[in-house]
Structures are given as C-alpha cells and as structure tokens.
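Good morning N.,

You mentioned wanting to compare the apo and holo forms, so I went ahead and generated the holo version with N-hydroxy-L-asparagine. This is what I fed in:
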Amino acid sequence: MEALATWKHGFEPNRISFAAMADGLSALDAVERGARYCEDDLTCMSVGSGAIPDELGVLTLDASIMDHDGNCGSVSFVQNYPHPISIARKVMEETPHIMLAGVGAEKFAEHEGFTKSNLMTDASQKLYEKWKELPEGLNVRLRRSEEGEHEYVFEYSENGNTKKLDRKSLNESHDTIGLLARDKNGKLSGACTTSGLAFKMHGRVGDSPIIGAGLYVDGEVGAAVATGNGELVMRACSAFHIVEMLRQGIEPEHALLEAISRIKKDKHLTDDMQVGFLVLRHDGFWWAGSLREGYQFAAATDSKQNTLFNCSGISFTPAS
Ligand code: SD4
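and this is what came out, ligand included:
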C-alpha cells in the first residue's frame, strides 16, 4: 500500500488515507476520506470550509475523483456544500456524466441528500475584507515564503513602478490537496479538492476538477495529481501527460522532469508561480516533482510511516 498527498496540510489526510487502506478499505474510499478530512479542516484555507473566497467574497469549490478503472467524476464552482469530493464521487457513481458545474452541481448535491452550510468562517471573511481594502488594480501573486509554504504577495503599480505591500496578515498559504493511493489489492485511485486561487475572478475554475489536468488515473499504468497554478497545469494537461509517459515505460522521475520542463516553456510562467506533482505507478513506485522549492508533500508506504518531504525539481528530502 502507498498513500501520497500534496502539501503540509496533506500530512494528516494522508495518514487517514493510509490507515483506511490498512483497515481494508479501497484506495477510492481512502482518498475520499483523506480529502474530506482536509475539507473539514478550518486551519487549511485553501480547501473546503473556511477557505479563501473569490473576488466577490463568494467561496466556490472544485473537486475531482478517479478510480483504478477509469471511472471519474468532478464538480466545479460549487457553493455552500462542504464536501465537493463526495459530490464528485456521486457524479461518478450515479450519473452517466463526468462533470457538473455551479447551480447544476448544487441541485444534484441536494437531490443526493448532501447538507448545505455556510462555509465562510470569521477568518476567511476578515481576510476577504482586508483584501477588499487594498488599492484598485492590485495584483495577487503566489510566492514561496522562507518556511517553504506559499504566501500571497500583494503588488500595485504607482507611477509605472511595481510596489509590494507588506501584507503579513494576508500571508495565507493557498494550496489544493491532491491524494493518490494504492490499496492492498493493488488498485489505484486519486482525489483532488480545492477552493482554487485566492480572490480569483468570479467564475474562474482551475485544473483540479479537470480530468487529465489536475488528476488522472489509469489502473494499469499509474496515477498523477497536480497542485499550484492551475492555468499552467491546464495548458499542459499535466496529469494525463505524466501517466501517458509512464505508459511508454518512462521512469516516474523522468516523466515528472519532462512535465516540468513543458511548464517551464509556458510563456505565461512568472517567477513566483509554482506547480507541484505526485505520481504513483501501478506497482507502487512513486515520485514527486515541482517547478521550484517550497513544495511539500506527504508519503506513507508499508515500509515507511507517513513522512513529510520538501521537494524541489525532482529531488526531495524528509522535512525536519
Ligand atoms: C487551481 N491548482 O485552482 C489550483 C490551486 C492550487 O496550489 O493548487 N494552488 O489553480
């Protein structure tokens, strides 16, 4: 068995995902369980309840899930439902479709018996109000902090010069959780759930609910999941690209190197954008990669307990 999850806030979800498989649950149940834990974690302001809203102060969520046999489901632009990952699973299992968006996804969730709630917390509301006070035309950019987490940098233009605001109180990391797992029966599954980019344009949807961009699983080959700047990942169809390279017999680390080098060629790439990947081959061999330093992930296997790693490029070391 193997379980992998993106970011530091993926550590506990990954432990839960691995423990679920140790208890005999399937990889699909395991990744859903781990993702739901993160969706409920109010300290994680990038996934589920308590996440950072969009530019209108509306919290919208995206999620996708995929199993060993290529079954998949996703939802995007969902409001007021705390567990988009489970709605995505229902889309996969109960409809002939793959993706439901916005009001349609919410109506489906209601029909399936999901409970509605207000997902904004005092912390996310306060953060939004602070952001609203910032000058017009402000750019929000993602960058690495010294702690290895991501933070948002707030920039504005004055007399043609770009100035940075000291926004210590706004330095909230904002990262999707992606989980991959291989269970006792050697079955693979993956899940991805997020509120997308902080203060994103209303209606903006990133890579996480797009099968083949943020997540892809082929049980005979392997699975890949992405986090970071979704536009970069969508333009490169990264998760599908990585799995297809595995299909051709390319080693996971080399597949990641190639996927990263493809993103490096994207003309929209700026210095402070990050992308991170996890890949899990059908035989349980796994690897991680990122565009630059600052990416963390958790990995648990039968021989090694859940561990947090720092990753840069295609190398990683246990985080101290
Ligand atoms: C998105 N990929 O919506 C997500 C955001 C993310 O680290 O993963 N940030 O683009």
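The longest helix spans residues 27-40.

Happy to go through it together on a call whenever suits you.

Best,
F.
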